[in-house]
Amino acid sequence: MSLPVVSPPAEDDPPEDDDGPIPGLVLAAGEGTRFGQENKLLAPVGRKPVVVRAVRTVLDSRIRPVTVVVGHEADRVREALSDLPVRTVENPRYREGQATSVEVGIGALPEDAPAVLIALGDMPFVDPGTVSALRRAYRAGGGTALAAAADGRRGNPVLFDRQHFDALVGLEGDVGGRGVLREEGVLVETGDPGVIRDVDRPADLPD
C-alpha cells in the first residue's frame, strides 16, 4: 500500500512548541555485521565518524533533547559522542533487533514529550533541513506518523506523535517504526537523497 505524500510547509519554523519541545532519538546500537570487522558507526566520513555526523544532523535542528541508544561497542560509541550535548542510554538486548532499541529509547524520553523524532546512527548523509521539514510538517498538522521521503521513496528519519508510543514499544524484531507507518503514515517529500542512503558496507562510504 502506498502512503500519501505531502510537502513540508515553508521554511520559516513555527513558533516555539506550546506543548514542549520534540525530543530526538538516534538509534546506534546494532552490530552492522555486513560492514565487516570494523564498527561502521565509527568509520570516518570526512573527518568525523558516521555516528557523529548522524547525531549532529539532529542537533542542528530544534529537536531537543537528543538521546542516543547504544549497544554494540557502547563505550567506543559513547567516546565518539563525548563532545556532543547528548544523553546516551544502553540497550543490552541490541542483538534482538532494532525494535528493542526503539523500546529503550521511548522509555528514556521525557514524560511530557509530545512526539519523538527517530533517526538512524548509520545515516550520515541526511541534510539537517530534513529534520526541520519533518518537524514543520508535524506542527502544521500533516500527520501523526511522518517519514522523510525522496522522490516519493520512504526513508529516515521518522517522527511519531505520542499517541503511537505504546505501539512503538510493542514492536518486535528489526522493524523499527515501519509497522506504525504502514497503518497511519504520511511521507514528507524532502528532495533529500540522504534520507534513503545508509552505510551498510565499506563501499557505501564516499571516497
- What is the arithmetic mean of pLDDT? 90
With helices defined by DSSP (H or I, 4 residues minimum), what is the helix count? 6
Low-confidence stretches: none
Number of strands: 10
The radius of gyration over CA amounts to 16 Å
- Basic shape: globular
Binned, the helix content reads 10-25%
Question: Could you give the order of the helices and strands?
Answer: EEEEHEHEHEHEEHHE
Q: What fraction of residues sit in β-strands?
A: 15-25%
End-to-end CA span: 37 Å
Structural class, please? alpha/beta
Strand order of the largest sheet: 1-10-8-9-7-2-5-6
Largest sheet: 8 strands, mixed
Task: Explain this structure.
The protein contains 6 helices and 10 strands. It has an 8-stranded mixed β-sheet, sandwiched between helices. A two-stranded antiparallel sheet has the order 3-4. With 207 residues, it is of the alpha/beta class. It is globular and about 45 Å long.
Topology:
Layout lengths: L4 E2 L17 E5 L15 E2 L2 E2 H10 L6 E5 L3 H7 L6 E4 L7 H10 L7 E6 L7 H12 L5 E6 L2 E9 L3 H5 L8 H7 L1 E4 L18
In short:
The chain is α/β, with parallel strands linked by helices. Helices cover 25% and strands 22% of the residues. The protein has helices spanning 50-59, 74-80, 98-107, 128-139, 165-169, 178-184; strands at residues 5-6, 24-28, 44-45, 48-49, 66-70, 87-90, 115-120, 145-150, 153-161, 186-189.
